[in-house]
Amino acid sequence: MPKPLDHRARNREYDQRRGSARERGYNSRWEKARKTYLMRNPLCVMCAKENRVTAANVVDHVIPHKGSTELFWDTSNWAALCFHCHNSTKQREERGRFQAVDVDGWPIG
Ligand SMILES: [Zn+2]
Q1: Residues with a beta carbon under 5 angstroms from ion ligand 1
Q2: What pLDDT, on the 0 to 100 scale, is given for residue 74?
Q3: Burial class for 4, CB neighbours closer than 10 Å (0-12, 13-18, 19+)
Q4: Bridge partners of 55?
């Protein structure tokens, strides 16, 4: 006997996951702030250190904010990174505490 509510229940679960990410500070205010930041800081700072010119598409928190709104919104704690640097270099640096993000800067998983 198929369960017709299964699909809807899965969608609800997904919404809740997205919702909790937004509650942690990844909301429309962040969306605007990171766009403005990337306009002013269009190049990846990690690539720049290695004399590579790469467009940044992720705003990274240099010191992991771990839910601290003060650290989260402190622009001096922000760094413009490209995907590659964010998802590989940061992962090495932070090991288990790493949060991968998608193209729009949303946490994955
Ligand atoms: Zn880079």
Answers
A1: 44, 46-47, 54, 82, 85
A2: 95
A3: exposed
A4: 43
Residue 8 half-sphere exposure toward CB, CA atoms < 13 A: 3
80: exposed, middle or buried (C-beta count within 10 Å: 0-12, 13-18, 19+)?
A: buried
* Segments of the chain scoring below 50 in pLDDT: none
pLDDT score recorded for residue 7: 58
Q: How far is the CA of 56 from the centre of ligand 1 (A)?
A: 7
Distance 59 CA to ligand 1 centre (A): 11
DSSP conformation class of 68: -
Each residue of 68-94: pLDDT tens digit?
A: 889 999 999 999 999 999 887 656 655
Summarize the chain as % helix, strand, coil (round to 5).
Answer: 55, 10, 35
pTM for this entry: 0.61
Domain residue ranges in the chain: 27-109
